[in-house]
Amino acid sequence: MTEQRKSRIRSALIFFGLQEGDDFAIERVRTPRNHQEKSGEFYLKEYEFLRREIEITIQSARALERNVVVAIGISIAWLFHERQAVPRWAWLFPCLFAMLGAIRAFGNFRLFSAMARYLGKVELAFSEESDPGGWQHFASRSWNRISVLAFWSLLIFATLAVTLYELTHG
Question: Where along the chain do its domains lie?
Fold first, then answer.
């Protein structure tokens, strides 16, 4: 480490109110070699954290789908039961549940996609020529995208069909 770098580190220590010695030694400040070792550890820890975050996001998406279907089902059942006592605009609530759920699912999907792209880059950085490349490179996400789109499209279409029928014939 050059004297100029040591001088800068001392200045930074003084600026932040730290003193050289007790808990901090200039030699422990990152050198390029130390930085490479630490960054590898950082990316592996981050990879592990993001994999867990993806699992949580997937669980959240499935819970959202289930809860929106239950909310729509209960609200339509209640509206059929109380058909004569509720105003006609109340039939729009199931559509609102479907639309809000789809918007939230789109946000989850965007988050999931961003994390997956980043993890793919991390896997690529740690992969060698003969490696399979990691899960993000191996797994096809097109089926997931199609199934999510189909689920929300069919749910919104069915909810709109019931609502329009009730508004026009109810």
Answer: 50-169
